[in-house]
Every structure is written in C-alpha cells, then in structure tokens.
Amino acid sequence: MTAIAAAVGLSGGAALYGLWPEESHLLRACAGALMFAAVSVPAGWWLGWKYDRLARLSVMDPLTGAYNRRFVETGFVKLTARASKQRKRMAIILLDVNDFKQVNDSLGHAKGDAAIREVALALRHCAECGEIVARWGGDEFMVICPYADDKAVATLLRSVRERLEYASLRTGIRLAVSAGVAAYPADGAQISQLAQIADTRMYADKLLAKRDQAEQESAQAMAQ
Fold first, then answer.
1. DSSP summary character for residue 65
2. Region 190-211: what's the mean pLDDT?
3. Which of 37, 40, 120, 131 is the most exposed, fewest CB within 10 Å of its CB?
C-alpha cells in the first residue's frame, strides 16, 4: 500500500508538473507538494510503524509473547500510583514451574521451551479480569492482579492449574506450578519488596507440594 501510494502520488504529481505551463506557479507548486507528500507521508508512516514495533518488542518476551521483566519494573510505579489514587489494592502472583530442570535435562531444551510456552499460554488464557502476565525470568512468571481478593486469586490459580493438567495430557510433559502471593500496599509498595515476599511464599508452596507428592508415592509403594 505504501509503494502504491508513493507511485500514484509521484506519477500524478510529475504529470501535472509537466503539463502545466511555466507561468502557472501556483499549480506547479501544488504539483510539487503532491510529489513531496507522496514520498514523505508513506515514509513517515513506515518509520512510525517500525518505531512502534520496536517499542513493543522491547517490552515483550520473545519466547512466550508475555510481557518481560523490564515492562513490569518500569510500569509498576504507574500502576501503584493509580491504585493509590483510587484507594485500591493489588496483588502480584509469582509462579515457578515445578521440576523444570528435570524437563530440560531429560527431554531437552526444545521441550523445556515448549513447557515455558504452555505455562504462559495457560496464564494468558486465565487472565480474564485485566491481569498482566509477564515472564519474570527463566521458568518464573509474574501475574499482576488489579485486585487483592483472596478468593479471586485462588480462583485464578485453580484455573491455571486445571489448564496445565490438560496441557500435560496433550503434550506429554508434566506441567505444574508453585505460586506465592503478595499484596499492595499491605506487603509493600515497591515491586522488589513484593517480589521478594511472593518468592518466599512461592518456595513454601513448592516444598509443600514436594512433601505431598512424596507422601503419595510412599502410599502407592506401600499399597503395592
């Protein structure tokens, strides 16, 4: 479309410029302006599109399509300022893929990447109330919730885990996550504070899941 617009504008402007006599200064000036616009407008549009695309890529994780850590760290100040003005609370959820190293070691990095993408897909699918999904780093994800209601957070996590169970059956990769939650402003005002608290609670959840799994395996072994 850009090439067509430029071609039409240039050819039309050139034709008019050549047809009009020398003394028709106003008409010749209009023709020149038409040719200039035919070049500058598409070029400006293209440069603007490239800038927007690069700006978007700078805040997106290329593997998962989720936001990246840079986006969260730079945008969280604006989110908290808005929440403070409206006297609203927020919650952040930090999630870690269980046994991810085992997936990489036993199945390969391609399967590991596939597992990361499936977790991101599940999070984005379940984010139906304005939640922001970001890849925090490695096999960790962060979800920023525009609410701090315990029931709403529990519902979101339950939906994510159910979807990962289906994804596990479909892909043949065991997909499960551990999660920790921190609330703004009760647990802190900075993203670093909230992430640290959520991280501590996430690892407590991970240890609990490992203990439950060990007890189930022990019970199965005794039953046999």
1. S
2. 94
3. 40
Angle between helices 191-223 and 69-85 (to 10 degrees): 110
Q: Report the C-alpha gap between 113 and 73 in whole angstroms.
A: 24
Q: Are 167 and 111 in contact (CB under 8 A)?
A: no
Percent pLDDT > 70 in the chain is: 74
CB atoms within 10 A of CB 9: 19
Closest CA to 200 of 177, 181, 174, 223: 181
Angle (CA) 144 124 89, round 5°: 20
pLDDT band at 223 (very low <50, low <70, confident <90, very high): confident
In this model, does residue 56 exceed pLDDT 70?
no
The confidence band for 135, taking pLDDT boundaries of 50, 70 and 90, is very high
C-alpha R_g of the chain: 27
Give the strand pairing for 132-137 and 90-97: unpaired
Rounded to whole angstroms, how far apart are CA atoms 149 and 66?
Answer: 24
Cβ contact 212:105 at 8 Å: no
Write the burial class of residue 222 (CB in 10 Å: 0-12 exposed, 13-18 middle, 19+ buried).
exposed
Query: What number of other Cβ atoms are within 10 A of residue 161's Cβ?
Result: 15
User: Could you tell me which of 180, 61, 70 has the C-alpha nearest to residue 121?
Assistant: 61
Residue type, 115: A
